[in-house]
Write the structure tokens for this entry.
Amino acid sequence: MAALTGLAPEVRLAVTGSLDSATGGTCDTCGHGELVDGTYSYGGVEYQVTEMSWMSFAALPKRGDVVEASRGPLWWHPLIERTDTAVFLLLIGLAPLLAGALLTRATYLPRPRAARLRSTSNERG
């Protein structure tokens, strides 16, 4: 949410390597995604990112590119590349919340009573 509102710290990721497994590669354990290696500086400390999944719909950066990103709180995905990635992560977080709200509603809120069928025998006669 902080990346969407501009409150997350902005960093510049210097890409030291990238791998697009769809175009071929020698990595057997990389899966079928796009991976980026790089370094960024935050608060005077240099951080290294290794095999970070590139979740953005933008083109995969090449070695030597510098990418603007937001620093996020997720240990498995420390950088949020663009707004589309932030929206995707927000939707992932909202899905269980919505499911829990619907389950709570179905469990604890009273159901509307079904209309009772009245006998129409007095109209038959």
The longest strand covers residues 10-20. The two ends are 69 Å apart (CA to CA). The mean pLDDT is 77. Residues 2-108 form one domain.
